[in-house]
From TrEMBL:
One of its GO terms (molecular function) is voltage-gated monoatomic cation channel activity. This is Uncharacterized protein. GO terms for biological process: regulation of monoatomic ion transmembrane transport. InterPro entries: OEP24 (IPR034626). PANTHER family: OUTER ENVELOPE PORE PROTEIN 24, CHLOROPLASTIC-LIKE, OUTER ENVELOPE PORE PROTEIN 24A, CHLOROPLASTIC-RELATED.
């Protein structure tokens, strides 16, 4: 049986839409993603990305417009009997390489880091889960010398509310993910740039549908 899912999103501030279709063919996912540029002034290859992925092992993305291939490989090693999840990413045309690592200390604590080889930029994030319903995630960016903070909480119906603040950009954000067995999964987002004189909120909406063929 082939399983598929559809994800659609709309950015109200930029009047831009995006969509992706994922088809699962027995462990291997085939994905096609588009942006609003794909359909502006008629169908085109702008904003089109084709992907082949084996979750937990590798992803291969091909940006049709840029003719760029991005490889991503995942692996897990043990550090003092703790699992360390590693992700290596490289883009051929953009010539960018990054390494991500997440060390799971226990069920409530983990430390993540991201390093960009070209820029030398490094970000470190600590994740703490409290009571199985609330997650607190402070993050430090060494390049920007700035802190980010995100707090999320799961509510009674399985939905998740998440607030975030980025000190380098002074952007305050709020996300609400609604899980529905009848209407699919919906994500509503709002953000405000506190550095702007006119602090106008920006809104986006995204929906995910799963179906079988």
């Amino acid at each position: 049986m082939i399983k598929a899912s559809f994800r659609g999103g709309y950015d109200a501030d930029n009047s831009d839409a995006s969509a992706s279709v994922v088809v699962n063919t027995g462990g291997i996912n085939l994905r096609a993603s588009t942006t609003g540029d794909t359909f502006v002034n008629g169908p085109s290859l702008n904003g089109l990305t084709l992907s082949v992925e084996n979750p937990g092992f590798f992803n291969v993305d091909y940006n049709v417009q840029k003719k760029d291939v991005r490889f991503q490989f995942m692996n897990t090693v043990r550090v003092n009997e703790k699992p360390l999840n590693l992700t290596y990413t490289h883009s051929l045309v953009e010539d960018r390489t990054a390494l991500d690592g997440t060390l799971l200390l226990d069920s409530n604590h983990k430390v993540s880091a991201n390093y960009g080889f070209e820029s030398g930029n490094c970000k470190v994030k600590y994740t703490y889960m409290h009571g199985g319903v609330m997650t607190i995630e402070p993050c430090y960016d060494f390049a920007e010398n700035s802190w980010d903070l995100a707090v999320s909480r799961r509510i009674y119906d399985g939905s998740v509310v998440r607030g975030s603040y980025h000190s380098s950009t002074r952007i305050l954000g709020l996300d609400w993910k609604i899980n529905s067995s009848t209407n699919g999964n919906i994500k509503l987002s709002a953000s405000v740039n506190l550095a702007e004189e006119k602090k106008m909120p920006k809104f986006t909406a995204e929906s995910i549908w799963d179906f079988e063929m």
